[in-house]
Amino acid sequence: MEQPQYKRILLKLSGEALMGDAGYGIDPQMLETFAAEVETISQLGVQIGIVIGGGNIYRGIQAAAEGIHKVTGDHMGMLATVINALAMQSALENREIKTRLQTAIVMEQIAEPFIRRRAVRHLEKGRVVIFGAGTGNPYFTTDTAAALRAIEIEADALIMGKNGVDGIYNADPRTNPAAQRYDRVTYREVHERNLRVMDLTAITLCQENRLPILVFNMSQPGNLKRLVMGEHIGTVVTAEA
């Protein structure tokens, strides 16, 4: 049987992707869709780490605009990511997938603290490891947390699962019908063209550690499996074009 091209991945999901068509919170149908996709590649033997944003519940930048201190708002956003991580953990365990939740902020009653060696050991044992609470520090996004965790666990690729967007475009395809999708771009081009893939700190981390970034439409059933098996879908960000 054909083997996956990527043996260990870090899957980054935005909190907004969990909303589905709702304007807030978690859509159970979207949660189940994503859990089913993860189950498919887990059965292939792919080792999976997951980072989920918290924008469907709370955003630090929004809090700052409402008068809450930026650091406090970011900490509230970190807790929102833990809520999403717990929801994903529950959805995966409902499918009898073994998981571990590790958080950058200690909350031992519900999760393990993040310890790199322990996370790698869980992956080696076939458990899906979900990383919550971002980096544990304010002023850093969950994109940066995803890049950092991917590098720490020595993932083969950082996979950005988008909801309804199938790659990186030169403009927003949801508002500009003439927007063109890139099949492959370099880290340098992402900087120079100001492409909204992830924040610049995360891009720089990936660039310095030569970590490939794959951006694709996660809401299309079967796409994640096609991606890890080596099929070219979405956009690839690497050092060379």
Walk me through what this model shows.
It is a single chain. A nine-stranded mixed beta sheet has the order 4-3-5-2-1-6-10-11-9, with helices on both faces. It has a two-stranded antiparallel ribbon with strand order 7-8. The two termini are 31 Å apart. Helix 1 (28-42) packs across helix 3 (70-93). It is globular and about 45 Å long. It has helices spanning 28-42, 60-65, 70-93, 116-124, 142-152, 187-192, 200-208, 223-228, and strands spanning 8-13, 47-52, 99-103, 112-113, 128-132, 157-162, 168-169, 181-182, 184-186, 213-217, 235-238. It has 241 residues and is α/β, with parallel strands linked by helices. Helix 1 links the parallel strand 1 (8-13) and strand 2 (47-52). The longest helix has 24 residues, at 70-93. The chain has one domain (9-141, 152-229): Carbamate kinase, CATH 3.40.1160.
For this structure, the CATH topology is Carbamate kinase
Distance between the termini: 31 Å
Largest sheet: 9 strands, mixed
CATH architecture descriptor text:
3-Layer(aba) Sandwich
Mean pLDDT: 92
- Rg (CA only): 17 Å
In brief:
The chain is of the alpha/beta class. 36% of the residues lie in helices and 19% in strands.
Features:
alpha/beta, Carbamate kinase, two-stranded antiparallel ribbon, 9-stranded mixed sheet
How are the SSEs ordered, and which strands pair?
Elements: E1 8-13, H1 28-42, E2 47-52, H2 60-65, H3 70-93, E3 99-103, E4 112-113, H4 116-124, E5 128-132, H5 142-152, E6 157-162, E7 168-169, E8 181-182, E9 184-186, H6 187-192, H7 200-208, E10 213-217, H8 223-228, E11 235-238
